[in-house]
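ARCHIVE CARD
SHELF: 3
SLOT: left
DATA:
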Amino acid sequence: MRRVAAFVLTGLIAAVAVMPALAQSQQRTEVAQATRPRIVITPRRHEPGPNAKRECEARLVQQHRPSGTVIVPVMNCWWQ
């Protein structure tokens, strides 16, 4: 019986020790969410018309990486 009581007491002490840390992390999360700026993105123009075509331009570009220079495909598309 003493072992069970000691085990329960140890668990309660651990829980009480963790609670302030949880409260601080929740406060930090709330502060971070409260100060996050809002970004509004507006399109440059409205939806493309019914006769619009999508034009694309593809090319190969060199990228410098730690393992060495590689060539990767890059594609830019727009509506006309």
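SLOT: right
DATA:
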Amino acid sequence: MTLIDFFIGFFLMNAMPHFILGKWNQRMLSGFGYGDKANQLYSLANIAISLGLFIYQYGTTGFLENGIYVGALTIILAFYVLGGLWKKLFTHR
């Protein structure tokens, strides 16, 4: 493992809690401030950094060879797509 691999995983996984808490209107301090929109933007920035580092290190063909990264990215994207639905299903009114 190289240092760049560490940061690829670090930024990708750091996106998850910031997005979830931002989507569910919870407040958590992020690099962009203390609020739900700030956390969602910070999450997107983390994913962009992670993707940029991954493509820099492995190229676009690296996605075919790195199932762990593709699996983690798939879970995060599922939260982006389904997060609103899950919030409606699992929060009490």
